[in-house]
């Protein structure tokens, strides 16, 4: 079953317009980035008193090069844009920088890195952008399950309106990205999530309220929680590429309502699992996938609980294009944060 290839429909292709620009006397750009510099998905939707996600756009812009500078500006009450220039090695290992509302933390080109630590967004935090950063290496040797520590790349508790974009998160102690305790109005886009056991957990609450979009992410050499989304009211996952996933792929836990579109699952065990909620799959491709072991549940269950187009606009790329597209455009980019 999981070796089937489903046809992908060419939704909303970008039409070439260089000829038109030249005809109008406007020089054509060297390359059009396929991403947006504003959040798409549920992070762009109005709710809980917040009209989309703008981060620190209204505030001061600063550049930091040390852990102390980063911690000071991230905890500042006023809005600000914090540009991370170069590598910042956290001391002690596992330190999670506390981030409060109305912040943008963005890497300067491909050089912005957080090594041996991550970020924590406490309950009530809202309107935060974390973009164009490599966040890596809190892994504790001999503890792949995170039993002796809770060193996450991103730990976000009871927060809303969060955009995580063009980051590379790898080799963490516990979870790469934990969106916990009802965190909602979240978009995760154009990220690389690699070389890890427990990648992404979301929800972790009895209330069915989380609204989450994940698109154009590359899950690579991972095991479980790719992601595991628990009791989410609406989870929209599209154009994600799962490669060499040994445990399970997308898991709609509890009463989650999930829609998965135009994604590519390659050498992935248990690509799709749903428990008590709904999971509708459209236009995905499955290559050399297997089913068996854990988790246990149905592959799909419908009909769809919601229509993403009722909440925001989005464009689907063909699933077959994702390896080349994400190899070039996922993770930190030289053109962002300069």
Keywords:
338 residues; Pectate Lyase C-like; 16-stranded parallel sheet; 7% helix; disordered N terminus
Structural account:
The structure is a single chain. By secondary structure, the chain is mainly beta. 7% of the residues lie in helices and 39% in strands. The chain has one domain (40-329): Single-stranded right-handed beta-helix, Pectin lyase-like (Pectate Lyase C-like), CATH 2.160.20. It has helices at residues 18-23, 67-74, 322-329, and strands spanning 46-47, 50-51, 60-64, 80-84, 87-89, 95-98, 103-107, 113-115, 117-121, 126-131, 134-136, 154-157, 160-165, 168-170, 175-180, 184-189, 192-202, 210-215, 218-224, 228-230, 232-238, 241-245, 250-253, 257-261, 264-268, 272-274, 278-282, 285-287. The termini are far apart.
For the record, the CATH architecture stands as 3 Solenoid
Amino- and carboxy-terminal Cα gap: 46 Å
Mean pLDDT score: 91
Strand content: 35-45%
Gross morphology: globular
- Give the oligomer, counting copies of the same chain as homo and different chains as hetero: single chain
Number of helices: 3
Briefly, what CATH class? Answer: Mainly Beta
What name does CATH use for the topology? Pectate Lyase C-like
Could you give a short account of the major beta sheet? 16 strands, parallel
Give the total of domains: 1
- Poorly predicted sequence stretches spanning 5 or more consecutive residues: 1-30
The proportion of residues forming helix, as a percent range, comes to: under 10%
Number of E-state strands: 28
The CATH superfamily bears the name Single-stranded right-handed beta-helix, Pectin lyase-like
Radius of gyration: 19 Å
Helix/strand/pairing category: mainly beta
């Amino acid at each position: 079953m999981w070796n089937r290839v489903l046809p992908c429909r060419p939704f909303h292709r970008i039409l070439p317009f260089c000829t038109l620009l030249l005809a109008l006397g406007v020089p054509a750009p060297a390359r059009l980035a396929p991403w947006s510099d504003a959040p798409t998905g549920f992070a762009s939707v109005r709710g809980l008193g917040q009209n989309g996600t703008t981060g620190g756009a209204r505030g001061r812009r600063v550049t930091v090069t040390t852990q102390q500078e980063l911690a000071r500006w991230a905890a500042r009450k006023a809005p600000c844009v914090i540009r991370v220039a170069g590598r910042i090695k956290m001391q002690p290992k596992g330190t999670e920088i506390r981030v409060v509302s109305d912040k943008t933390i963005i890497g300067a080109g491909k050089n912005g890195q957080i090594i041996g630590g991550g970020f924590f967004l406490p309950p009530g935090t809202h309107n935060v952008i974390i973009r164009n950063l490599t966040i890596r290496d809190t892994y504790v040797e001999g503890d792949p399950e995170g039993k002796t520590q809770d060193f996450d790349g991103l730990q976000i508790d009871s927060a809303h309106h969060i955009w995580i974009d063009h980051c590379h998160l790898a080799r963490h102690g516990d979870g790469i990205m934990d969106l916990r305790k009802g965190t909602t109005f979240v978009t995760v886009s154009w990220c690389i999530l690699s070389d890890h056991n427990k990648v992404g957990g979301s929800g972790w609450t009895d209330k069915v309220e989380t609204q989450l979009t994940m698109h154009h992410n590359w899950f690579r050499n991972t095991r479980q929680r790719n992601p595991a989304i628990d009791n989410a009211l609406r989870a929209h996952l599209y154009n994600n590429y799962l490669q060499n996933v040994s445990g399970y792929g997308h898991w709609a836990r509890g009463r989650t309502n999930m829609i998965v579109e135009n994604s590519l699952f390659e050498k992935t065990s248990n690509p799709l699992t749903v428990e008590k909620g709904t999971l509708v799959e459209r236009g995905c491709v499955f290559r050399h996938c297997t089913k068996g072991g854990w988790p246990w549940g149905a592959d799909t269950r419908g009909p769809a609980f919601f229509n993403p187009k009722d909440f925001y606009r989005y464009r689907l790329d063909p699933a077959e294009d994702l390896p080349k597209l994400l190899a070039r455009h996922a993770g930190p980019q030289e053109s962002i944060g300069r």
